[in-house]
Amino acid sequence: MAQTPIKLHYFPLRGRGEVSRLVLHYAKKDFVDDRINPADWATHKPKTPFGNLPYLEIGNEAFGQSMAIFSYLAREAGLYGTSNIEALKIEQIAQLREDLLTEEIKVWKEKDAAKNAEMTKNMNENVYPKVFGNFEKLAKENQSKAGSKYSVGKQLTLADIILFEGTVTASQKDPTVLDKYPTVKGVAALVADVDGIKQYLAKRAKTDL
Ligand SMILES: N[C@@H](CCC(=O)N[C@@H](CS)C(=O)NCC(=O)O)C(=O)O
Questions:
Q1: CA–centroid distance, residue 7 to ligand 1 (Å)
Q2: Secondary structure element (H or E) that encloses residue 156, with its range
Q3: Scanning 24, 80, 189, 195, which has its CA 20 to 30 A from the CA of 202?
Q4: What is the predicted pLDDT for the residue at 1?
Q5: pLDDT tens sequence across 104-156
Q6: In whole angstroms, how far apart are CA 116 and each of 97, 111, 113, 163, 185?
Q7: Class of the 6-78+196-203 domain?
């Protein structure tokens, strides 16, 4: 990864910042992990490229949009596969997970207990089975085609890191949630044990999202 100083700005959550953090830790890149206190957000907001988080500073340039940011970092870290088709497969998984995260954020934001319970039920009965079922299908197909233990191609990619991070919120609520998706569970366990990521996870503060 390039030697230019990097600062990643996000809230003290995993949310839309965590995949980038995981990629940076995998790459063992020395970076500023700026976690903006929500109380300071109103003053910080006008400094961001698009009025939201995350954003990434590379030297004296700033860039927004979480998926663009983690894709750039993953390409720099050699985590973007070995062909254009593999890149497409990685992006497919990234987009599936973004759809899931959008739903998880809605539940996390809902403070009305009855509405929250209804939304949580929908997550457990419909959203998670659909998304994790798709992750399972894609990873299983790849493993049998490529003869590998990864979700895209024959080596670790951004897709594996996304599969891992995409299951953390659900697994924290129900540690058995991945039992029905053994391939995804295997990929998640593998990512959690990768050098750089493993050490970061050991000291990471637990957050609901
Ligand atoms: N499409 C954008 C969405 C960014 C976004 O909605 N960020 C939220 C946090 S996850 C935010 O900054 N919310 C505070 C605000 O918009 O004032 C991305 O993926 O980066």
A1: 17
A2: none
A3: 80
A4: 77
A5: 999 999 999 999 999 999 999 999 999 999 999 999 999 999 999 999 999 99
A6: 21, 7, 5, 25, 27
A7: alpha beta
Confidence check: pLDDT of 39 > 90: yes
The CATH 1.20.1050.10 portion of the chain extends over 84-192
Closest by Cα among 90, 61, 55, 93 to 74? 90
Atom of ligand 1 nearest to the CA of 41: 17
Q: How many angstroms separate the alpha carbon of residue 203 from the centre of ligand 1? A: 25
* Closest listed residue to residue 151, CA positions, set 117, 183, 121, 103: 183
Q: Find all residues with CB under 8 Å of 57, minimum gap 6, and list them.
A: 5, 6, 7, 9, 63
Check whether the bond before 46 is cis (ω within 30° of 0): no
Instruction: Name the segment(s) of the chain with CATH classification 3.40.30.10.
Output: 6-78+196-203
Q: Thinking of the domain 84-192, which architecture would CATH place it in?
A: Up-down Bundle (1.20)
- Structure tokens of 49? 């490229």
